[in-house]
């Protein structure tokens, strides 16, 4: 029984990682793009159902991996939610990772408008902008491999 479990685990790991394109992989995460358009909260729920969260981004390399993978995923001018949202006056990631390490806000962002409580990444230069969380958008999840 022990031997059987031992043998099954590597097979499962290979299966899971092969289901994520290597271009969408970084730091043991798979970036999964939602093609349907959802409000921010529903997009986060969809990411949780995939085993992750809306993507948090912690350095320029991760930003580049996501930005390039998005071009392949959407083949179009598509902006997409990332996991940044405003709780009170402070910005947070839905996966609760540290928001203070890295941001890539567009010039003039984040706008200090009460309803603009969620952030998306722009298709054209990967800058982040704020918008009403109820608006419908594509989204990117980070799912641990
Ligand atoms: C953010 O930086 C701190 C050190 O300044 C580090 O301990 C932490 O792991 C970093 N968090 C992320 C998510 O990179
Ligand atoms: C978050 O990152 C900032 C900046 O790197 C660091 O000063 C702070 O200690 C970190 N907080 C946690 C909880 O790791």
Automatic annotation (TrEMBL):
Q: Where is the signal peptide?
A: 1-18
InterPro entries annotated for this entry? C-type_lectin-like, C-type_lectin-like/link_sf, C-type_lectin/snaclec_domain, CTDL_fold
For the keyword Signal, the answer is yes
Domain (C-type lectin): residue spans on this chain? 26-142
Family annotation (SMART domains) = CLECT (SM00034)
Q: What protein name applies here?
A: C-type lectin domain-containing protein
Entries under Gene3D superfamilies matching the protein:
Mannose-Binding Protein A, subunit A
Where on the tree of life does the source sit, at the highest rank? Eukaryota
The alphabetized UniProt keywords are: Signal
């Amino acid at each position: 029984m022990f031997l059987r479990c031992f043998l099954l685990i590597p097979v499962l790991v290979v299966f899971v990682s092969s289901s994520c394109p290597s271009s969408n992989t970084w730091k043991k995460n798979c970036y999964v793009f939602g093609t349907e358009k959802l409000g921010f909260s529903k997009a986060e729920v969809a990411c949780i159902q995939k085993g992750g969260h809306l993507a948090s981004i912690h350095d320029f390399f991760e930003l580049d991996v996501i930005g390039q993978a998005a071009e392949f995923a959407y083949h179009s001018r598509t902006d997409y939610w990332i996991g940044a949202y405003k709780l009170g006056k402070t910005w947070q990631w839905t996966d609760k990772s540290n928001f203070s390490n890295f941001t890539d806000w567009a010039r003039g962002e984040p706008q200090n408008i009460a309803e603009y409580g969620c952030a998306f990444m722009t298709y054209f230069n990967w800058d982040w902008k704020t918008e009403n969380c109820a608006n419908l958008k594509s989204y990117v999840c980070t799912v641990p491999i």
